[in-house]
Each structure stands twice: as C-alpha cells, then as structure tokens.
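Memo to structure team: turn this sequence into structure tokens by end of day. - J.P.
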Amino acid sequence: IKDKTVGELKLGYKSKVIAASTTQLAAQAMVTIRDHGVSGLAVVDEKNRLVGMTHGCFAIHSVAHVHCCNI
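Reply from structure team:
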C-alpha cells in the first residue's frame, strides 16, 4: 500500500458524512458512532462548517475518564 493514495484505497470513504455538532452531548455522539458503525465523527459548528473530528476512543476517554486506545 506504500505506493497507493488515500483515494485509490478509498480510505475513509462513506456515501454520507456522519457528524456531531459542537453543541451535541458527548454521550449522544457516542450513540451516533455506535449506531452508524463508524470509528469517529466529523464535528461541525452551527453553520454546518467542519471544525474538527473526533474518534470514539477520545469520546469514551472524555466521558468515562478511561484510556481505551493507543492513539
């Protein structure tokens, strides 16, 4: 894979971007991650602009104060 691009490997490709808003509760975001079978979410502001990304492990760490990933 060292000679392949992200596009060629279709890494992270989804037909629809799954996102959480900056005002959404972290617990709700974790449910969204579970329900959509994704590892993380785009984070958007009130104007639906991308402001960041989160990973399920980071959300769990923030809510439960436990370390679950080696990222």
